[in-house]
Amino acid sequence: MTTHPRHTIAAHNQTTTHRYTVHFPDHEPRESDPHYAAFNAFRRHHRDGARCYVGERAGADLCTPELELHHAVLEFAAANAADAAALHVDFPEIPQDATAEDVARWLESSPGEFRWLCSYHHRGHGGAHTASHADWTAQLYVPGLIT
What we know:
By secondary structure, this protein is mainly alpha-helical.
């Protein structure tokens, strides 16, 4: 690939701040969710040998030792407002007319919904709950993108 110097942007650091309001629907505390036991069972049975999803790809240099189980598709707190027909497009196993209870059951028992992340890539600066989706996804393939 040939680039022209006048079109090349030099490597640089950029501070980014995102500020918006998330409108969570009513939901029970996690511990009261009847499906939380399935989530905990998955965590217990799959913890041994687990590695950070990001660290497996772009290297574990920024990974912290603590691993946490992340809902990869839909957060528990948003499940009650999820549109079953919209979920069905990507997850055909969810009926288009699924109830909130059906969605919660799927959410807490579907292995494809879970992703192991170290605390940094879960809740830290490079975290799924912190970084924009575009930046979080890019860091899977660009080591050290977010610090």
